[in-house]
Write a structure and sequence with these properties.
Tol-Pal system protein TolB, WD40, Neuraminidase, signal, cell division, mainly beta
Amino acid sequence: MRSDRFPRPFVIAAAALITGAGLLMAPALQAHQAEPFEVNVIGGTSQPLEFAVIPFAGNAEVSSIVRADLERSGQFKLAPDSKVPAELAGTNPDFAALNAAGLDFVLTGSVSGGTVSYRLLDVPNQSVVTSGSFSGGTRDVAHQVADAIHLKTLNKKGAFFTRIAYVTSTGLGRNMRFKLIVADSDGANAQAVVETDEPILSLNWSPDGSRIAYVSWLNGTSAVFQVNINTGKRTTLSSYKGINSAPSFSPDGTQMALSLSRTGNPEIYVMDLASGQLRQITNDRGIDTEPVWSADGRSLYFTSDRTGQPQIYRVSAGGGSASRASFSGNYNTSAQVTPDGQLATLSGGGGGYSVAVSGKALSRSRSDERPTYAPNGMMLLFATGGRGGRLVGASSDGRASFSIPTGGNAREAAWGPYRK
């Protein structure tokens, strides 16, 4: 079936056709005007760290990228450059003056050739808490410095030296053209790895970051593909009769969960990627779709309308009975799960759909698409605005929000794993 719309993966999984179980009403089917992006602050009363980044000697662009990374995370309150004269954080830091400025940490650094050296001052403890260096391209080393700072100050690895993927579309009707784009986590260095006149949907990264699985069309029907982002080589993973949708790599990269209607009704299956053998996980009269793995690979979360309205369910990766996992609201789809079990969904109803984390609304736009977590679980990214889509993100506690530049209509966001 050739589609001239830009349907969501959930529509694909429900076939956008009448099945024996009926048609699930999918979010974001209709065109929406771009709306302001807002988030609700849901992270409690904890305060961000007061932080200053001194422009790095030799290349201030590096420190600007580090600063933008830290600010985007929502965990740091960045002081303006004018607040902290560089001489206060020199070889012999003036900790009294820095403390009077209300700072928790101050980052200084320098760039020489392709090497960036940095030093982080702990102001209250009047000490150098960490220092180090990275070599490479400007943007790569800047993101690595930001990751190191995030780890040292928050005891959790940052997710700035990662990549994101998304889909852009141009043209109208049968003249639409689609690109699968891979970019840095802040949207820089964007490159197309797939270009086609068929819709591209439901992106999912392999754990090693070398491949992206996605849904498109083959000989008039939906199919699951994977593309090597370094070589551009594309292979077909699933093209059974009926619906092939919603691919999700297992945490160890050896298996893939997906939704297939090869026996008539959309069910969750797990495919062994080495042999291609399938194992059916669910067997229900409802529509089961959008599987995602738990961090330990032992469970699958998926969307089903088995009790009426779509909700999120959890089932053992080996199969068996499923239990409901979402309870807030009448309509929850598109689950994403953090390593510590935090659940993000699309939540809503006929009036629109927005991102919710652990049942609490994160966005008020009402035209959101499937959220995707950063690998540390502390930030989310998603498309909003319907067919005029743009990529926006937020800290998972709702403290900060940001936009990702894409140069045009963007959909189907997927945040990649840590880079090696």
